[in-house]
Amino acid sequence: MASIHKEATIRVPAQELWDAARDAGGLHTRLVKGFVTDCKLEGDARTVTFGNGLTVRELIVDVDDTRRRIAWTAVGGRLSHHNASLQVFESGPGECRAVWTADLLPHEMAPAIAAMIDQGLAAMRLTLENQVHAI
Fold first, then answer.
1. Entry pTM
2. Which CATH class is domain 2-134?
3. Are 2 and 107 in contact (CB under 8 A)?
4. Is residue 77 classed as helix, strand or coil in its secondary structure?
5. Where are the chain's structural domains?
6. What number is the average pLDDT over the span 107-131?
7. Is the CB of residue 101 less than 8 Å from the CB of residue 85?
8. Which pLDDT score, from 0 to 100, does residue 77 have?
9. Closest CA relative to residue 86, chosen from 76, 96, 94
10. Could you tell me which residues are beta bridge partners of residue 98?
């Protein structure tokens, strides 16, 4: 199983990033604008449309407000296994650290998924930091 671990510093308070991340249906408007272009939440599942046209059904496994962690799994598609989480940590005044972890099969998909996570973290930084500076 391939494991991917990526981190980014986001120049917003941790609670602000967490408020956007825990909104499981608001990816395209609150967390990663452009990287995700649409997200439809139905109960504990969401259908996510990425900027590259890929559409994925994801099941929300857990939203942990104490640990500021959301976990999900992608079902169907080219991956035989996928689970991921995003966790938000305090890192200094007015900034936080976003940690995105994914475990997946087949191994051969790891480079493509790692690239998508990099794009997602970059979009997260732009989305959240631009909202703060626009105020």
1. 0.94
2. alpha beta
3. yes
4. coil
5. 2-134
6. 96
7. yes
8. 87
9. 96
10. 8, 88
